[in-house]
Write the structure tokens for this entry.
Amino acid sequence: MTPTPRRQRQVAADRAHQASGADWAGQPAAAVPKFAYAPVMAIAALLAVLLISLSGRYGYHRDELYFLASGRHLAWGYPDQPPLVPLIARLMSDLAPTSLVVLRLQSAVAAAALVLMTALITRELGGGRAAQILAAASIAVAPLVIGSGHLLSTTTLDLPVWALVCWLVIRILRGGDDRLWLAVGLATGVGLFDTDLVVFLLVAVMIGFAVSGPRRPFTSIWLYAGGLIAVALWAPYLAWQASHGWPELAIARSIAGGGSGTSAPRWQLLPFQLVLLGVYLCPVWVAGIVRLLRGPTLRWCRPLGVAYVVLVVIFLIAGGKPYYLGGMFPVLLAAGAEPVVDWMRRGHGRARPALIVAGVVLTLVGIPVTLPVVPVADVHSTPIVALNYDAGETIGWPAYVHEIAAVYDSLPASQRRSSIVLTSNYGEAGAVGHFGPAVGLPAVYSGHNGYWYWGPPPAAATTAVAVGFDRQALSPLCGTLRLAARLNNQVGVHDDEQGAPVWVCSALRASWAVIWPGLRDFG
């Protein structure tokens, strides 16, 4: 009987795999190199020490203040995030209520873990000692990693979760036990307790399998068992979102529309990768993309190359933030490290010292942008805040709260007894909630994201010290409206709150129960 065209293509593919030195399933037959344990651990430790040593400088980020507030209102979900980071904030705050170092300790550990995972991925892709060191050092100096390792954020944990999932998938592609899909499901489920982004990675990887093969995973019961584990761990958050009308969709639309301080136009998605990973490292990760998509030695790992392309398309269409692609940096650096090392060995060894020196110099120049090295009093005279939005959001919160307290203290005693603080965003609310009790401020309320669910104010509150609103927003609510102050961080840093108005709103035109629905702001 004449073989069908489909069978002929399958036979040809099997022969090609065998001719390339791969086993029948298409995985590389060679054993992985030894792990460069000592140098990789040294790089990870140096990064952790750097992050911990600087973690107490400047102050809380607006998101960290929100996480602390969310931790005081523990739930299975929030409109803008799953519960893991608020839970961590709660635990760290209970351990050391005023310590930034303790709050951010897990971030430094996560960054160090990301360095280790990047080296392990490099090893799994056949990279030797030099390639593992290059990949580990590259991820350690990436601005995205240093910046996220300095703050408590969802990105802090998301990056190592992506790296772990990719490492496990690569192990499976190499011919590992299919039961590793259970570990993929567990890692994905934990990641989904931090942020939803890991879902896009799994979708992209599955598309990679479908487009480039191998398709054998789709026939494995362990793949679906791993999926069930992930969905089971994700289910409480999904149930919370469903019961609250899926507010995360409104958050996503706001991000796509530029409503976040770290949002960027769609056209900047790819160019911004140069900023997040560093222009100097461009040859490494570009070589990684090429090798994953076209390189014969990593043909068996092509699903991950396709997955990167799929992620680019998804986030371009959805209007995602540029750092959403950062989870693939470990894989790209791991794939590109070996070709770069080979290039240096092929007659370019003399360039190695110059390249190392240039890399160290550029890293040292970039550190003041991502870490609080410059004295806070001098930040205003530098381009740091213009280059790094998050740096500005860690400056000035205690000063702002004292200025809000001064407005509150200026009210007659009888009016103070029936007053609350109302803010326009969760950063202001988080700052008042954290620093306010020490200066005598009353309870704070906001319509922004999770805070909206923690309102409305009590009916007895007839006066609001309102922060950050424009007059047009408050005039319909307040019978009497007076501009009492404008916020000033006292160090001249132009962050989101500098110059924000502080109003005294009294003689409310309606009850808080009537006002509150109109104050909801998901973004």
Remarks:
- The longest helix spans residues 221-243.
- The beta strands are 419-423, 444-446, 463-467, 478-486, 501-508.
- Confidence is low (pLDDT under 50) at residues 6-25.
- The CA atoms of residues 344 and 352 lie 7 Å apart.
